[in-house]
Design brief:
The protein has helices at about 15-35, 40-45, 50-65. It is mostly helical.
């Protein structure tokens, strides 16, 4: 009545490719986060807590600090 599902041998590589893609994306994000400057990290961390004007002032201050 019920037939067993027989997996084809030609699709054995698919989990490895998916794992490699996910691991690559994770490592890319991890390296980018490690290389991020502390000022940029603190700005991104406080974004939801600041209103638009405070965020704009903080951004302008950071731009003038980096221009020096």
């Amino acid at each position: 009545m019920f037939k067993r599902v027989i997996l084809e041998g030609q699709y054995d590589f698919v989990p490895y490719i998916c794992f490699a893609l996910v691991a690559g994306v994770f490592l890319t994000i991890l390296i980018r986060a490690i290389r991020m400057k502390s000022t940029e990290a603190s700005r991104l961390a406080s974004m939801p807590l600041l209103d638009d004007e405070e965020l704009r002032n903080t951004r302008e201050k950071q731009l003038t600090d980096t221009a020096r």
